Amino acid sequence: MAAKVLFFGDPGIDDSLAIMYGLLHPDIEFVGIVPGYGNIEQEQAVQNVAYLLSLAGKRDIPIIAGAKGPLSGEFTPYYPEIHGEKGLGPIRPPDTLKTGELLNFDEIFKIIQKYENELYIVDVGRSTSLAIAFLLGGEVMNKVKGIYVMGGAFFVPGNVTAEAEANFYGDPIASNLVCERAKNLAIHPLNITIQALLTADIVDTIVRYGTRNPYRGLIRPIFDYYYEFYKKSVPGIKGTPLHDVVALSAIVNPSIVQYAHRRVNVELFGILKGVSVADFRANPDKEPPETLDRIALRFDYKKFITEFIQVMTMGDVDR
Q: Per residue in 6-43, pLDDT tens?
């Protein structure tokens, strides 16, 4: 039976690639998507989700309006040089595209109750929308099989400051709240997602063999745009990281990651804003088991990318 997923994101190139992967995966069923601000403004994120769903003929998947800004109320800058003016590199979704009915936020709780203890929540953007859901829904939010987040950085530099990863930095209050309140939380930090490289050769394979992939025409221009940014920001990198795909893939391919169990906190202010903190001493302080989160620290790139290629070519390439 396919894993039922309620997806939170801010698409954005890497979020969009995760959505494409999820929509094409035979073992993943999106039961709702919550687009919010982050890589782009929330209104454009809604349009991008509607565009990706329309290309796949999946207009029946509920779209739920997410947050428009962080819990702190701070101004959110956007960086078109990373994700493009519309969030999809050089691709511009039609302005006239109908989104269908944009559902109210309380639809999140209805979905959780419908699929109680069978549902996975995946959050690969700023965690504002998910944090608000915890504030409004309370323990209803933990009636799920697992919460899978992309965010944080352990043992590696950050990608927005010297130590902070972008999602946790973008709304550290929300990220810390989720870490405190979510049970069965799995965090997929920058130190493993930076390894999940999409290379030009892999793109060639997807374009060549993915003849049934409705996103085939988007992959090359999106990759080229994203790679230009990464070549400047990370000299010598061989491709573009599929940060957000990792958190989604780990649900249906659990052997691609190995987790450590630690309590995670996120610094809220000052020079350490957005920094993810966990106790990795040989003898860490004792914490109640229910407060421990799973932090992905080891990653099997070969298994991950082999399965990603198969999904994106819709099975037309041998493993």
A: 999 999 999 999 999 999 999 999 999 999 999 999 99
> H-helix or E-strand containing 41?
none
Count H helices and E strands in the chain, helices first. 12, 13
DSSP 153: -
CA angle (185, 186, 190) in 5-degree steps: 135
What would the pLDDT profile of 276-310 be if each residue is shown by its tens digit? 999 999 999 999 998 999 999 999 999 999 999 99
Q: Which amino acid, residue 124? A: V
H or E element, residue 315: none
Rounded Cα distance between 5 and 148, Å, is: 10
DSSP state of 130: H
Mean pLDDT of the chain: 94
Q: Which has the closest alpha carbon to 9: 247, 250, 240?
A: 247
Q: Distances from the Cα of 226 to the Cαs of 64, 98, 128, 221, 230, in angstroms?
A: 27, 27, 25, 9, 7
Residues 6 or more apart in contact with residue 236 via CB below 8 angstroms: none
Contact between residue 148 and residue 123 where contact means Cβ atoms under 8 Å apart: yes
Rg of the chain in Å (alpha carbons): 18
